[in-house]
């Protein structure tokens, strides 16, 4: 069952949208109304909402701030903004935050109905894709190396033809391999070999799917692991560097400082002093 939430600090506006349109005709079976962002937040916490129609200008908290809260809290309903003022800054920020549409008040009911229908369709497509990605991730995680190689053999000459959902699963497997082998020799050829892809193609695919370079991802995880080891053990910095694949201590220290802002020695001291203060308090 699909649900719609209407948010506006003017009661007549909420009731007008809720009651004047035949929402069931486009698959919306439940319609909720809220007269403030706080009311809207409570409804979202209690109900599964797919589409939201929200006024931008509200007395207590703006629709833009409400959308920021939604994204921070992990709610990804499609949101359609309504506004009585044609302001470029509103339109620009709403797009940046991922709003589905930006409509002017008073809005034609047929246009609003069609816009909500399109937003619901987009939500359904996102849901389907997410389900497919999760399924492929499970499949790729469970396949043996032999089974995975057999699955990918037909794409060896044209890896760009690998289905997108399968690509997502391969990236999941690559991340798992990296996480399990941070304390060792990690290079893109070795990693690519785990998923039977050309190293150059894997680098391009990883960047396309994650927005992060493969080398940067490995570096970031290694520095996080270094921070954990510096905090939770008394192991020497030299030993930690070697565990993480750095044979040159100076290079490890320089890299750590570039990423964290302080040297490993300073980081350990700061963390130790911070914990000491907490115990004292």
From TrEMBL:
Keywords: DNA-binding, Phosphoprotein, Transcription, Transcription regulation. SUPFAM superfamilies: CheY-like (SSF52172), Homeodomain-like (SSF46689). One of its GO terms (molecular function) is DNA-binding transcription factor activity. GO terms for biological process: phosphorelay signal transduction system. PROSITE patterns: HTH_ARAC_FAMILY_2, RESPONSE_REGULATORY. Coiled coil: none annotated. InterPro entries: CheY-like_superfamily, Homeodomain-like_sf, HTH_AraC, Sig_transdc_resp-reg_receiver, Tscrpt_reg_AraC-type_HTH. Residues 3-120 form the Response regulatory domain. Gene3D superfamilies: 3.40.50.2300, Homeodomain-like. It comes from the Bacteria. Residues 172-270 form the HTH araC/xylS-type domain. The modification 4-aspartylphosphate is found at residue 55. Pfam families: HTH_18 (PF12833), Response_reg (PF00072). May play the central regulatory role in sporulation. It may be an element of the effector pathway responsible for the activation of sporulation genes in response to nutritional stress. Spo0A may act in concert with spo0H (a sigma factor) to control the expression of some genes that are critical to the sporulation process. PANTHER family: ARAC-FAMILY TRANSCRIPTIONAL REGULATOR, REGULATORY PROTEIN POCR. This is Stage 0 sporulation protein A homolog. It comes from Fusicatenibacter faecihominis.
